Amino acid sequence: MNSQVIASNSVAYVYDSLKEYVTNVFVIETLSKVFVIDTFCGSKFMEPIQSRINTHLNDKEVIVINTHFHWDHVWGNISFKGYDIISHELCRKVLEEQWEKQMESNHQYIEGSVEKCLPNVTFKDKLIFHEEGIELFYSPGHTADSISIFDHNERILYVGDNLEKPIIYVEHDDVATYIHTLKHYLTYQPKKIVAGHTLDLQEEDIHKTIDYLQGLSHGRQFSFQSEYERKIHDQNLKTLNMLEQK
User: Fold this and answer.
1) What 3-state DSSP class applies to 123?
2) In terms of DSSP bridges, do strands 61-65 and 2-7 run parallel, antiparallel, or are they unpaired?
3) Using CA atoms, how far apart are residues 128 and 223, in angstroms rounded to an integer?
4) Between the CA atoms of 129, 132, 136 and 142, what dihedral angle is there, to the nearest 10 degrees?
5) CA nearest 64: which of 47, 81, 52, 51?
6) Which residue intervals define the domain Metallo-beta-lactamase in the entry (predicted)?
7) What is the pLDDT of residues 124-142, one digit of tens each?
8) Sign, Cα dihedral of 160, 164, 168, 169
9) Residue 245 has pLDDT above 70, yes or no
10) Of 50, 68, 198, 210, which has fewest CB within 10 angstroms of its CB?
């Protein structure tokens, strides 16, 4: 793990223990609150963040945000038991149904302890912390339950897994809604964009992702430079085809 400063109030904790990509956990410090965005794969990974909070930020309210239900974003929730954990209402529902299944399929990635720890605060469309300038909003795309976070003071957009380089994972069949979410991102005019597995994102990457999704929906042929991109693209095609056949 290493840490990288994102802004004057934000640090990314970058983990490289998963094959083929890094995973980012973000900590935003405001005057009275600390926001932890996603919690990775178990209590061991959250120890540096807990240490930071306990040593320097223990007078502030801690709020955890789960951007979506996938295991690599929620298994560290147990480290923040007793604090408010926020997600979209659909995220909590899916986690309730699939927590054990995800554990069975991916238990080899756990470090430390993992217990079923669901979000205790949910919302449908938008949730704003006005004094902190932090806005959470529903942004279905990568998954149907995805949310994003916008820091109005720093103008940083945190997009979960809705953007990723070199290629996104498409795990939900509603491509039109995904594109709508990406176009909505542009209305925020962010100065910086960061994601669950990528830090160096620009508005250009939003446009490229829209183009890719439009191509997928119209059956366009793509060529890619790396085997990894080809593999993920094939998975995206299979996911859409499987969902369309149901």
Assistant:
1) strand
2) unpaired
3) 41
4) -160
5) 81
6) 22-197
7) 999 999 999 999 999 999 9
8) negative
9) no
10) 50
156-158 and 192-194 beta bridge pairing: parallel
* Better pLDDT: 219 or 62: 62
The tokens for 162 are 């809705």
pLDDT digits (tens, 9 = 90+) for 165-204: 999 999 988 999 999 999 999 999 999 999 999 999 999 9
CATH, domain range 2-245: 3.60.15.10
- For residue 137, the 8-state DSSP code is E
In the predicted structure, residue 242 carries a pLDDT above the cut 60: no
- Residue 57: predicted pLDDT: 82
Structure tokens at 37: 């965005």
Laid out side by side, the sheet with 147-151 consists of 126-129, 134-138, 147-151, 156-158, 192-194
Q: How far is CA 95 from the centre of its chain?
A: 15
CB 190 within 8 A of CB 155: yes
Q: Up-side HSE of residue 46: CA atoms within 13 Å toward CB? A: 26
Coil, strand or helix at 45? helix
Domain range list for the chain: 2-245
What's the sign of the alpha-carbon dihedral 211, 213, 214, 220?
positive
The gap between the terminal CA atoms of the chain, to the nearest Å, is 41
**CA-based nearest residue to 95, from 77, 109, 83:** 77
The first and second tokens of residue 212, run together, are 């890719």
